[in-house]
Amino acid sequence: MQKAPQAGYTRADIRRQFGVTERQLRSWEQQQLIAPHEIYSFSDLIALQTIVKLREQRIPVRQIGQAIESLRSKLESRHPLAELRIVSNGRKITVHVAGQKMEAISGQILLDFEASTLGGLHNFPTRKASATRLRESESWFQKGLELEETGAPVEQAMEAYQKVLEFNPAAAGALVNLGTIFYRQRKFAEAERYYIRAIEADPEYALAQFNLGNLFDEQGRVADAFKHYRQALHLNANYADAHFNLALLCERTGDTLKAVHHWKSYLKLDSSGQWAEIARKQLERLRQAVLI
Questions:
Q1: pLDDT band at 290; cut points 50, 70, 90
Q2: Would 84 be classed as within a structural domain?
């Protein structure tokens, strides 16, 4: 089910995965939160995930735009939504950089009271170094994506993603892409290791949870597959592909009622995609079996 990174993500994929409308997508493009595309890269996917999370917390679009411009200026980050870990407490947008929290718009460094002693605000002496490392990290990440998209030898893409991790060990996107490369090579132990590192870097990364579920599903580790597919849905209730794979898994384990639930949920999210007809046939087959 999961698209390979080199295939990219269509607008329909984006709408389905994040539960947004075409009107919302165009509005974010018009307000320059994201660049307009017909095919989105994995980096774009990360940026969109950040926007969706901020909007779920009722952060105004205008405030998100101000935060993006501020971070581009203060941290010299070209793509802050994809490069940085941006979060919100429902009122202010903050970013995690070099082990510290910074208010995105003002640039004020915030003290972590759970991990630090009292002492007020701190200077940010590592800002230039961090900005440089972020630029290098993003540059290598984009190179890795380009190498995959052009069909270059997989070793070259892997080297690029490893470079990303040298500059930013918590780059969840690079970790997931490395995991996926190993997954395709059926090197499951290595794939699992990278997917888990991605989840440790970003526990709210639904795609990493989903991919780990795929890996365990492939290996017949049913309980683990259930766990991570469900976690992906917990993080993104509109994750259609997670419903699809859970429906198949429930069918295989004989849980017809839950399979029906997930097929219905999938069709609510994607009633016209390439997999919708399969979902309808499976749902009808299960209904007939229950009647019999």
A1: low
A2: yes
What's the whole-model pTM score?
Answer: 0.59
Tokens 């540059």 found at? 139
Hunting for tokens 């994607």 — which residue is that?
Answer: 270
Residues facing residue 97 across a β-bridge:
100
Domain that holds residue 101: 1-131
CB-based burial of residue 117 (10 Å sphere; 0-12 exposed, 13-18 middle, 19+ buried)? exposed
Q: What are 137-181's pLDDT values in tens digits?
A: 888 888 888 888 788 899 999 999 999 999 988 888 899 999 999
Examine residue 272 and state whether it is found in any structural domain, yes or no. no
Angstrom distance (rounded) from CA 243 to CA 232: 10
**Overall number of domains in the chain:** 1
Q: 242: burial class by Cβ within 10 Å (0-12, 13-18, 19+)?
A: buried
Q: Is residue 86 within 8 Å of residue 94, measured between CB atoms?
A: yes
Q: DSSP H helical segments within the chain, as ranges?
A: 11-18, 22-30, 42-56, 61-74, 80-83, 127-149, 154-167, 172-184, 188-201, 206-219, 222-235, 240-252, 256-269, 276-291
Structural domain contains residue 145: no
Residue 224 lies in a domain: no
Mean pLDDT of the chain: 80
Which CATH number characterizes residue 41's domain?
A: 1.10.1660
